[in-house]
Amino acid sequence: MKKQILLIAALLAFLTSCGTRAPHYDYRELAQAALRLNMDIGMEDNHRLYVESARWIGVPYRAGGTSKRGVDCSGLTGNIYRKVYHKRLERNSDRQRTENCRKIRKSKLEEGDLVFFHNGRNKRHATHVGIYLKEDRFIHASTSQGVIVSSLDETYYKRCWMQGGRVK
């Protein structure tokens, strides 16, 4: 909480200290997003991505779902991409991987890239997708917990990692 308050104070000091016109930000909304996502949101970050992602936290998992009443992983990525980037993604995780993205290495992931996982059995087919945020963290729809932020460093995601994808 202190980090978010300090971030907001620093942002306000920065914006009032220069004579140039700064972009308009809703600092309350950014602070709420930072709290919901449990991460700092910096000036250089894509604020729309973080605010929209935070709006989905806690939505329950529903196979085939595409709304805040219930969503699956590809439904979540599709909704966030449509709202933030004005791009339509395929409706299934493997088709998002093969038709919407170009492959990128894990070490080259950037904010907004998609992250793909296999189920441990069929390593050629993506069965899960999320959106990379930063610091090895990504948002996704977990079958057991609904929409959450997880770390690529967690054992399961390390074991089932397939690839990163940058949307074309």
Tell me the number of strands: 8
- SSE string, helix = H, strand = E? HHHEEHHEEEEEHE
Average pLDDT works out at: 90
Q: The biggest beta sheet, please?
A: 6 strands, antiparallel
Counting DSSP H or I runs of 4 or more residues, the number of helices is 6
Helix content: 25-40%
Record keyword descriptors for this entry:
168 residues, alpha+beta, two-stranded antiparallel sheet, 6-stranded antiparallel sheet
Structure in words:
The protein contains six helices and eight strands, in the order H-H-H-E-E-H-H-E-E-E-E-E-H-E. The chain has 168 residues and is of the alpha+beta class. A six-stranded antiparallel beta sheet has the order 3-8-4-5-6-7. A two-stranded antiparallel sheet has the order 1-2. Helix 2 packs across helix 3 (47-56) and helix 3 runs antiparallel to helix 4. It is globular. The model has no long low-confidence stretch (mean pLDDT 90).
At a glance:
The protein has 168 residues and is an alpha+beta fold. 38% of the residues lie in helices and 23% in strands.
Topology:
Blueprint: H1 2-17, H2 27-37, H3 47-56, E1 66-67, E2 70-71, H4 73-85, H5 93-100, E3 101-104, E4 114-117, E5 128-134, E6 137-142, E7 146-151, H6 155-159, E8 161-167
Antiparallel strand pairs: 1-2, 3-8, 4-5, 4-8, 5-6, 6-7
Helix pairs in contact: 2-3, 3-4
